Task: structure prediction
Amino acid sequence: MIEILRPGPLTTVQDLGRPGHAALGVGTGGAADRGSLRLANRLVGNAESAAALEMTCGGLTVRFLTPLTLALTGAPCPATLDGRPIGMNAPVHAAAGQELTVGFPTRALRTYLAVRGGIDIPPVLGSRSTDTLSGIGPAPLTAGARLPKGTAALRFPPVDFAPRREFPLEAVLHIVPGPRTDWFTPEALTTLCTSAYETTADSNRVGARLAGPPLERAIHHELPPEGMVRGALQIPPNGQPVLFLADHPVTGGYPVIAVVHEADLDQAAQLRPGQTVRFQSSPRRRALRNRRAYLPGTT
Result:
């Protein structure tokens, strides 16, 4: 069992989500930064889809009631095990009764805690993830909650450390224009790709709200609701982009000027309030190179 002593600003259980239920109005959800979740699970010998804890702005303290192996990935945070510092991106063995304290990240936003065997809570629609928009899945964690540790695990990997590049101070996300580029003036896409936008404090797992030069529309009448995807840049009437993240709605009524490449979505999930982001319209091949620079060792 894992006992939550202090949950921090927002800590949820996340796996790779529940795809295939959009017809029911339920999005895929799952970890906002899937690459970091997968890495944490690999480091402790789990399947990549195992459930782990996602922290927003750190601040977590837990007590382990049984011996286990853990790993922290994602946004770099100072962490201690019974007061002794431990590192990120490496497996750590904890004894029964020891307490893990995770501080606040120095860069980025979301940190992942995986334990060998995974978090073994009952799945809902095939996933253990918390969906903050629909309310499906377990509620965000509170002090006193106890989480059972699973037993299904694979062999440990042949490495004990996974080096990762430092998170950038200014993110660059690659986009594919459309599907509603024609709803905007010819200058709007140029403005999007030549301006810096700031991530606002109104951002969450549903989407990152951005502030910068407004994107002007050429068509102003209402758009019938249409399907939305993670990474869609939806533009409401004020012209300020909203970048959809893991818990985005399955439909939306504002036009989407562009969609962020899937290869950059993990980096998008790590945007923190006050951080600037730029967009580049580029082919898939360049976006994949950008992903490899962000996550060394990925293919």
Observations:
- Residues 290-299 have pLDDT under 50 and may be disordered.
- The CA atoms of residues 11 and 55 lie 4 Å apart.
- The chain has two domains: 2-147, 170-294.
